[in-house]
Amino acid sequence: MPRMKKVRNFISKRKIKDLKNLVSRRKIESVKNLLSKVGHTVIDRSKLLTEKILHETKDIDSKGTLDIVDIINKEDAKVASAVHKERKNIARAVELIVKSFRSGGRLFYVGAGTSGRLGILDASEMPPTFGTPPGLVRGIIAGGRRAVFRSVEGAEDRRPEGERAIYKVGIKDTDTVVGIAAGGTTPFVQSAIKAAKRMGAKTVFLTCNPGTKPETPTDVIIRPVTGPEVITGSTRMKAGTATKLVLNTLTTAAMIKTGRVYGNLMVDLNATNDKLTDRSERIVMQVTGQSRRAAKRLLKKARGRTKTAILMHLRGISYGDAQKRLSRSNGFVRDALESSS
User: What is the pTM of this model?
Assistant: First the structure.
């Protein structure tokens, strides 16, 4: 019994300590929020297209479930064409990113709320899909790690923290920074872009509004105009979908241009789970015409490297020679296969 009492006392003290820490963190957030609003004028966003009312959905609350689904789907169907209209600007941004990668630089996404989360989502998919180092593509979100899972009050309005976030990651002149702001006015993002430009990085501004511009001129502006949202101002919908399509294209195209794809196969994937192991084996089977058992043996000899396994089999060379050949061809499987030595 005395031991149980000690345990209860320990747990109670721990709970009190945790509660104090929580209250303290919330006080800090409240103070930060208040400080950020000192001398701060609220931006009038009523003229932004993404804040306008979509007249076709003014009575959506009176519709049946299937009608609501149809209305949302009809609006979503407009997104792909909006992104298509920006294809030249997207291609220009891809070239900047490729140049960064080839010169040892990185890609950073900067955003708040949904925009920030979409950047982090895209960045997190790069290592397993394309075998990239974790730091090659990174996402920065206003409010930090906690903001990935829940809203951090006022984080997007804290202009100094946007600049601070850029300095913290050590932006270099070989990097590319993509600022994502559906409405185009987010202070955190505007400040981050300005700081990145000052540090010599290439900058891209991604927004879904026709009338907003970055405070500092950027190298590229990508502007898929998706119009008013089904629910007024809810840019997690069409604007968010357009953002996801653009980010998919930026990184996928950049990975293709840097040799991480052969044909349409992700030959640089990291086989970190059963699904990716299966995919790696099937890629080797498809390219070499070998059985699954033979593909497994080949991958084992290639130390799990799909590219190397393909080259070893098709050129009849050793692991070491395959690696050298890939190195000379900058990782491009096609070039390595066509090379005479």
Answer: 0.85
